[in-house]
């Protein structure tokens, strides 16, 4: 379908850290993105800063917009934070690292919510209660591939992660970003200061940093809303403040995990109230714009037909096998990862499939992501040099 941007092999978010390590002179890595050679580098991920949103609102972020001279990156599929951060952190697509969505099937028969590393509500548990899976399914088991931060540290690079303090030791941090020294921060000021401190090391030095408030405001008010634009201006000031203080021989790379689109809550499809979307469904995972549908034994074709009938031209509904064959999850899908992918995949063009009973908070949001539209797939790669 012409509205879908299927992930490809060129200029992916997963290429950022391998290219950065090559730019630092670390053996065994190839720079596919044209990152300038440097002594120290920081990669700042701004959650939700889509390529099209940055260009549409360049007046609110003049410093960021001035850096947007390179071709955008593809975030990968699904365009959701847990998946994208793991792709960035491992240098792999979702089919290889296994964090295949906002929620997805886990070995005990439920859904994993990787941001909390806990079970998520299911079709049979409308209360949506969560149970930690840190012991039952450790992140290092679910995602056993070495991270880029581990590989960098093993190669003698001074590695630092800078993120909200509450992210230290979480399941997603352990799965996607284990390795190096974690520094917990609380606001823009100490985030910027920690990044600059990392870049002042003699090198080679690598810093990963995360800022999530733009995504938070976008979910609640919608991307492009006045609250979102004011938050974007704050991100612009943060990046400018860091860039103006970059030590010699260092550079700052700004990327994002996905873009975002506005969906009117009144114009959504509710899987918890439409019987056609629950018949034959064992589990329903993923984002509101990219659903993993796990069918009861023998019911896949009926589920596929029912979901296509309800969604029509508002999305694309395919089998899990088709999505894998077409490379949605990358060129390789590990045997251990295949059961995590839905029997049916539903990606949306102009709506969202909400769950008003199981996901009341998510269902009320105005800003969404997860699908294969250009607005969600394309993210910037901005480079400032010291």
Automatic annotation (TrEMBL):
A GO molecular-function annotation: hydrolase activity
Q: Which Gene3D superfamilies match?
A: Alkaline Phosphatase, subunit A
SUPFAM superfamilies, alphabetically?
Alkaline phosphatase-like (SSF53649)
Pfam families noted in UniProt: Phosphodiest
Q: What is this protein called?
A: Type I phosphodiesterase/nucleotide pyrophosphatase
Origin organism is Saccharopolyspora gloriosae
